[in-house]
Design goal:
Layout lengths: L13 E3 L9 E7 L9 H14 L8 E5 L3 H12 L3 E7 L4 H9 L3 E5 L2 H16 L2 E2 L6 H18 L6 E5 L4 H13 L4 E7 L27 E5 L1 H15 L5 H14 L5 E7 L14
Parallel strand pairs: 2-10, 3-4, 3-6, 4-5, 7-8, 7-10, 8-9
Antiparallel strand pairs: 1-2
Helix pairs in contact: 1-2, 1-5, 2-3, 5-6, 7-8
């Protein structure tokens, strides 16, 4: 019985869609990443990035850490930095929900809100690294982001579908989840189809991005994604509400976007086992209008 909170990261439930999937020849499963202790899929990457940096002595207890985040990575880094007694500053867009800011502060992090969105937050963090001696994990370019999913998310999905998964669907933000999971699943069966989800050009969906070229995550490798499906903000919001009402899954908007894409895919297929990532819990969006 020597388990710590860190031992609770990963091994999240895989549950079958009971209502939303109406294709009797296809099974749709949701991977419930909100069951991680920090409430999102980002616990995996945050732990792997911090632990590896400590083990390789890139950082120690005296390091000044900084990271730009749209939310979930920041919460995960705040939680794990607190456990390891590390000081961290998290830079977020001003539009971040109150719950996210308060959660990071509860874990002991300093939070800075930036007026120019996630791109502005990234520029601010990079400037502090360059000029003030800060260390950034840079989740967008850190191989330990996607390797967390190669080591855990991919193997869990393969195990829990008895190796029968045919399609994997994931929203794309930093792209760590889709890169690591794809790498593992393709090693097991090169025919598994990897489907990435992006917003339509006129849509802003927290957690899903279509990056300008200059900000494209360095860990992203287009050859590891077989297909990209686009969803609108309206589709993502509507599906997030349906996930809660019909499936009993309270999640954030990026999970609604992934589910909308997964259902488009499911309705095209004659057979298959589709797994879609539910990347966080919906309770950190209750102060927004997502569920109104």
């Amino acid at each position: 019985m020597n388990k710590t909170i860190i031992d609770q990261i990963g091994n999240t439930p895989l549950v079958k869609s009971m209502v939303l999937n109406t294709n009797p020849n296809v099974s749709l499963y949701f991977k419930l990443e909100g069951d991680n202790p920090g409430g999102s899929v980002k616990d995996r990457a945050a732990y792997n990035m911090i632990k590896t940096a400590l083990d390789t002595r890139q950082i120690d207890k005296n390091s000044k850490l900084i990271e730009a985040t749209s939310g979930n990575t920041g919460i995960a880094l705040a939680m794990i930095a607190g456990i390891f007694k590390l000081d961290i500053e998290l830079v977020m867009p001003e539009s971040a929900t109150k719950e996210r800011v308060q959660t990071m502060k509860a874990y002991g992090a300093k939070v800075t809100l930036h007026p120019d969105g996630i791109e502005g937050a990234r520029d601010y963090a990079e400037s502090k690294v360059e000029h003030e001696g800060y260390f950034s994990f840079n989740q967008f370019a850190n191989d330990n982001n996607w390797k967390a999913h190669y080591k855990s998310t991919g193997p869990e999905i393969w195990r829990d579908t008895n190796g029968e998964i045919t399609h994997f669907v994931s929203s794309m933000g930093t792209t760590g989840t889709i890169m690591g999971t794809s790498t593992y699943l393709k090693e097991q069966n090169k025919n598994v189809q990897i489907v990435g989800v992006q917003p339509t050009d006129d849509s802003n969906i927290p957690g899903i991005r279509k990056w300008p070229e200059a900000y494209l995550p360095k860990i992203f490798d287009a050859s590891k994604v077989d297909r990209i499906l686009e969803v609108s903000r309206d589709e993502a919001v509507a599906m997030t509400r349906r996930l809660a009402k019909d499936e009993g899954i309270l999640a954030g908007m990026s999970s609604g976007g992934a589910t909308a894409a997964a259902l488009k895919l499911v309705n095209e297929l004659d057979s298959g086992i589709v797994v879609s990532i539910i990347c966080d819990r919906g309770d950190r969006y209750l102060s927004s209008d997502l569920f109104e």
